[in-house]
Amino acid sequence: MIVAFSVTPLGVGEDVGAYVAEAVRVVRESGLPHRTDAMFTSVEGDWDEVMDVVRRAVAAVEARAPRVSLVLKGDIRPGVTDGLTGKVETVERYLSGG
């Protein structure tokens, strides 16, 4: 599965980068395939692995913020691996005329 999620600390002011970095650090240290952009971090693996990483990423922010917002979107497709790369490659292929 692939989960795209965003963890936002609330009640800490506008500058939330240091808090978000703690969540991203959890994802990176997980060893699972992942990608971070300006809005979401996507992580790929089996259900238990991915949800554990999301839970720990939220906990890392929760440890420093009085309130946390979580947005989560999942693509559950058994038997598919390398979806983070494969989905993007498919779109790029179509864009290049293939």
TrEMBL record:
InterPro entries for this protein: MTH1187/YkoF-like, Thiamine_BP, UPF0045_domain
Signal peptide: none
Domain of life per record: Bacteria
Domain Thiamine-binding protein: 3-92
Pfam families per record: Thiamine_BP
Protein family per UniProt: Belongs to the UPF0045 family.
Protein name per its UniProtKB record: MTH1187 family thiamine-binding protein
Taxonomic source organism: Streptomyces physcomitrii
